[in-house]
Specification:
With about 325 residues, the protein is α/β, with parallel strands linked by helices. It has two domains: about 5-230, Spore Coat Polysaccharide Biosynthesis Protein SpsA, Chain A, CATH 3.90.550; about 235-300. About 45% of the residues lie in helices and about 10% in strands. It is built from ten helices and seven strands. The chain has a seven-stranded mixed sheet, with helices on both faces. The chain starts with a strand and ends in a 26-residue tail after the last helix. About 35% of the residues are buried.
């Protein structure tokens, strides 16, 4: 199969027939074999019944329905697990992503050998309350991830080699960082394509400021797990050691200052009367706690069944036998 189109959705019953018809037309015009996987994320409208009717009309349409709303990431992960196409396309169900972009996205994956191609809605039809936070978010994501050629990490319209979606796990709200997840999994050929963005035709936006805040928290989590997920002592141990020794030096300075003043007949106070003494103790206590946190983290990682779960790209296996002509 050439293409799997994964469409996560929540309360998009009005737009589904038009979207399915549009995808079908594009696929037939280009001679693609395809499937469309609608993942109904606990919609409270008639979305699932619409998907059932579309599936009866078109055998290429498949559907999965959650009992309740879990979020876009679980919906995508479920669709990825069921996708059978050589190239997987994701798009939103609100008709703001154009299926006419599919042939070029497919070509970039198959001919230009990209692992992932992300859409860039260079001209948007969203309100400023959405576009300004999006620009700030993307600037931060580029800096942290090191993927400097992407302008729109969160664009729903993306194309993937099938190996990519089978080797990443999209959970929580990590759909915003799928390019970063792919990079961490070793898929580094990540490209971008300017795509057409259409104004929403039906329904209402699911965007809220809470997603903007949660996006930064998730980015911090992803950065930490990618850098120190299997070696937490490298971070906590280092910070803990630095804080402990700074506190130890500070205590030594306070004590030495008192002894010096006593020896030279100068005015001195009790060590416990100095605020620097308590600051030093606090540093030492925090340093010890950070070090122990790193140690406990190492014990957790050591007992994790995935501590040596490395992705193998290719492997050459030989019998090990020496050709007779080479035997002397």
């Amino acid at each position: 199969m050439d293409i799997s189109v994964v469409v996560p959705l929540y309360n998009e019953a009005e737009s589904l027939p038009e979207l399915e018809s549009w995808i079908e037309r594009v696929m037939k015009e280009n001679g693609f074999s395809y499937e469309v996987i609608f993942v109904n994320d606990g919609s409270t409208d008639d979305s699932w019944n619409v998907i059932r009717r579309l599936s009866e009309k078109n055998p290429a349409v498949k559907g999965v329905s959650f009992r309740r709303n879990y979020g876009k990431s679980p919906a995508l992960n479920t669709g990825f697990a069921r996708a059978k196409g050589d190239v997987v396309i994701t798009m939103d169900a609100d008709l703001q992503d154009s299926p006419d972009e599919i042939p070029e996205l497919y070509r970039m994956i198959t001919e230009e050998k990209y692992d992932l191609v992300s859409g860039w809605k260079q001209k948007r039809y969203d309100p400023l309350s959405k576009t300004i936070p999006t620009k700030l978010f993307n600037a931060t994501a580029r800096k942290v991830s090191g993927i400097h050629n992407l302008h729109d990490f969160n664009c729903g319209l993306k194309a993937y080699r099938s190996q990519v979606v089978k080797h990443i796990e999209v959970y929580g709200d990590m759909h915003r960082y799928i390019p970063y997840l792919a990079k961490n999994a070793g898929f580094k050929r990540i490209g971008e394509k300017v795509v057409h963005h259409q104004a929403r035709k039906y329904g209402t936006t699911k965007f809220g400021l809470d997603r903007f805040v949660n996006g930064y928290l998730d980015l911090g989590t992803l950065w930490f797990t990618s850098k120190f997920g299997v070696k937490p002592m490298h971070l906590f141990g280092l910070l803990g050691s630095l804080m402990f020794f700074l506190g130890l030096i500070a205590v030594a300075v306070v004590g030495f200052t008192k002894l010096y003043n006593m020896h030279n007949g100068l005015h001195y106070t009790l060590v416990t009367d100095s605020p620097y003494f308590y600051l030093a103790l606090t540093l030492m206590l925090l340093g010890s706690q950070l070090f122990l946190a790193g140690f406990i983290g190492e014990l957790v990682v050591r007992n994790s069944p995935r501590r040596n779960d490395y992705e193998i790209d290719e492997e050459i296996i030989t019998s090990g036998a020496i050709p007779e002509a080479d035997v002397k």
